[in-house]
Write a structure and sequence with these properties.
19% of the residues lie in helices and 38% in strands. It is built from 3 helices and 11 strands.
Length: 141
């Protein structure tokens, strides 16, 4: 009887653990993305040990957030400054693994940089690293 209880408890812990590798590999809960990738629709995206969540609300506005592997929030767009899904926007992962955010609603370009265990979100246009060529082309289109 004791072995059956332990097996059931282990099964429940594994199936309920949202941070497990099983959940990260479940295609229904998200999509793995690689470098040099544009994200242009709501959903959950996995890049290395980072989760990118793009949420669309009923009024067709979008907010996004970034969390680590354990779902600790690293950055979240202010819900009061959401962007329209009807305007031009993208999230771009460049070849240096920097995550760029662009939208025409506020004419914003932001970047999220990972340096080891340190995370930096840059909003100031004067402090941005050089804009990737692919993102620059997207903005000009």
């Amino acid at each position: 009887m004791g072995k059956i209880t332990i097996i059931i408890a282990l099964f429940m812990m594994i199936s309920c653990d949202k941070n497990s590798d099983f959940m990260r590999n479940n295609k229904e809960t998200g999509k793995f993305v690689k470098k040099n990738t544009f994200i242009d629709s709501p959903g959950i995206y996995y890049f290395r040990d980072i989760n990118i969540i793009v949420k669309e609300f009923k009024d067709d506005t979008i907010v996004y957030g970034i969390s680590d592997y354990y779902n600790n929030l690293l950055y979240q767009r202010n819900i009061n400054n959401s962007i329209s899904n009807h305007m031009k926007w993208t999230i771009y992962i460049d070849n240096q693994s920097q995550i760029w955010f662009y939208n025409t609603d506020y004419q914003e370009i932001n970047v999220f940089i990972t340096e080891g265990k340190k995370y930096i979100f840059i909003k100031d246009k004067n402090k941005l690293p050089p804009l990737p060529t692919e993102l620059s082309k997207f903005i000009k289109e």
